[in-house]
């Protein structure tokens, strides 16, 4: 399979990975043949990239951080939790959901099991979803990334659970933000930004009332927008005043937000997002935490289409753990636009004069 921009999709292309709805269920499954109507509908749903089948790359499959079954179960759990809170109107301020902690502790346990089985492989987050599904898929991605960093830091099971529950629920305060602000395509006004910013304290107020959720987990909701230099909100905390759980969740939140399409901007590529985050060391986040995070992220995920400085188009076939910016690529189109008689690979770690110009 290969990942391509939706503008490069042609009628007759077949999906190699499913497209997910907001509740985690499949909207379009593997093997569906795309036509003009499908392609136009997907654009309107905010989908900008797709994984499609390709004869030259049919053996390539990005290593998933978690299985599709685990992801679907986790997304559905987040969806149901947030939907129930909205339906109950937060029980007029009480917002008590006795089963919340138990259910999500089980969900995060399955995420952890998948991550541990997967081993020490650089993370690819390859799920494709509609714009409406962003909040729920984003929460799961943040939990996956946070769990990986927690494991790398040597956290014990209790610490991992506190971090994981906090990561799954860190944005729960967004259930009190009007949907027109969440999906607004223009820049927010100062008043609108203030409404959105309240999701940190609202989320903390919801979680601290849950009898089976740790106060440290609740602080992930409260502090995930605090920044290492004191420029964040809601309290302008700095340095070690910000709990490490919240720093990890905040870092994972920024990375996944940058690499996801949003109503007001295009997505950043993983390499662009890593560059921005690395530059934020000791400004937005502790630099040692940033370095640890970047060691576990794939800069050029497998199946990514790239343009080389030779004019050739290639697809990333494998990552080099010792040279993350120099993956192995498979050439699928020559500089003159012709297709090779058969695919062949270039190890960029060894071919120092060949560079990746951009992702396609």
| Most strands sheet | 5 strands, antiparallel
Low-confidence stretches: none
Helix amount: 40-55%
Strand content is 5-15%
Task: Estimate the global geometry from the Cα principal axes.
Answer: globular
State mean pLDDT (0 to 100 scale). Answer: 90
N- to C-terminal separation?
Answer: 14 Å
What is the subunit organization of this protein?
A: single chain
CATH class of the largest domain: Mainly Alpha
Q: How many extended strands?
A: 10
CATH homology superfamily of the largest domain: Hypothetical protein af1432
Question: Which key features would you list for this structure?
Answer:
five-stranded antiparallel sheet; 10 strands; 3 domains; single chain; Molybdopterin biosynthesis moea protein, domain 2; alpha+beta; 40% helix; 360 residues; 12 helices; Hypothetical protein af1432; three-stranded mixed sheet
Write the layout of secondary structure elements.
Elements: E1 2-5, E2 19-20, E3 26-28, H1 36-44, E4 49-52, H2 68-87, H3 100-118, E5 128-129, H4 134-152, H5 157-169, H6 179-182, H7 190-197, H8 199-208, H9 215-223, H10 244-258, H11 270-279, H12 287-294, E6 305-308, E7 313-318, E8 328-333, E9 344-347, E10 356-359
Parallel strand pairs: 2-5
Antiparallel strand pairs: 1-4, 2-3, 6-7, 6-10, 7-8, 8-9
Helix pairs in contact: 2-3, 2-4, 3-4, 3-5, 4-5, 4-10, 5-9, 5-10, 8-9, 9-10, 10-11
Structure description:
The chain is globular and about 65 Å long. It has three domains: 2-57, Molybdopterin biosynthesis moea protein, domain 2 (Alpha-Beta Complex), CATH 3.90.105.10; 68-294, Hypothetical protein af1432, CATH 1.10.3210; 305-359, no CATH class. A hairpin with a 5-residue loop joins strand 2 (19-20) and strand 3. Helices cover 40% and strands 11% of the residues. The two termini are 14 Å apart. It contains twelve helices and ten strands. The longest helix has 20 residues, at 68-87. With 360 residues, the chain is of the alpha+beta class. Helix 2 (68-87) crosses helix 4, helix 4 (134-152) packs across helix 10 and helix 9 (215-223) packs across helix 10. The strands form three sheets. Strands 9-8-7-6-10 form a five-stranded antiparallel β-sheet, with no helix packed on it. A three-stranded mixed β-sheet has the order 3-2-5, with no helix packed on it. Strands 1-4 form a two-stranded antiparallel sheet. 41% of the residues are buried. This is HD-GYP domain-containing protein. Residues 104-309 form the HD-GYP domain.
């Amino acid at each position: 399979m290969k990942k391509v921009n939706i503008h490069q999709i042609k009628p007759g292309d077949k999906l190699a990975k499913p497209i997910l709805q907001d509740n985690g269920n499949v909207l379009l499954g593997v093997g569906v043949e795309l036509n003009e109507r499908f392609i136009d509908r997907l654009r309107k749903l905010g989908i900008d990239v797709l994984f499609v089948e390709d004869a030259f790359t049919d053996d390539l499959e990005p290593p998933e951080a978690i299985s599709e079954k685990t992801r679907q179960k986790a997304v559905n759990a987040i969806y149901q939790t947030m939907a129930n809170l909205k339906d109950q109107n937060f029980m007029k301020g009480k917002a008590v959901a006795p089963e919340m902690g138990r259910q999500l502790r089980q969900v995060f346990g399955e995420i952890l099991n998948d991550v541990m089985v997967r081993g020490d492989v650089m993370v690819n987050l390859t799920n494709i979803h509609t714009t409406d599904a962003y909040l729920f898929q984003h929460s799961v991605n943040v939990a996956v990334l946070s769990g990986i960093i927690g494991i790398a830091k040597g956290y014990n099971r209790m610490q991992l659970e506190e971090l994981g529950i906090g990561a799954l629920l860190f944005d729960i305060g967004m259930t009190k933000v009007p949907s027109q602000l969440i999906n607004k395509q223009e820049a927010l006004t100062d008043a609108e930004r203030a409404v959105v910013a309240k999701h940190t304290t609202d989320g903390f107020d919801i979680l601290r009332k849950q009898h089976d959720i740790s106060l440290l987990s609740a602080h992930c909701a409260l502090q995930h927008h605090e920044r290492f230099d004191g420029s964040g909100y809601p309290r302008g905390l700095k340095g070690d005043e910000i709990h490490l759980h919240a720093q990890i969740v905040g870092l994972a939140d920024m990375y996944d937000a940058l690499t996801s399409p949003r109503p007001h901007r295009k997505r950043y590529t993983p390499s662009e997002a890593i560059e921005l985050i690395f530059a934020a060391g000791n400004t937005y986040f502790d630099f040692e935490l940033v370095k640890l995070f970047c060691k576990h992220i794939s800069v050029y995920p497998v199946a990514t289409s790239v343009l080389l400085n030779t004019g050739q188009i290639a697809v990333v076939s494998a990552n080099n753990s010792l040279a993350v910016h120099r993956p192995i690529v498979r050439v699928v189109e020559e500089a003159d636009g012709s297709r090779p008689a058969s695919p062949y690979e270039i190890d960029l770690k060894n071919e120092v004069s060949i560079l990746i110009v951009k992702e396609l």
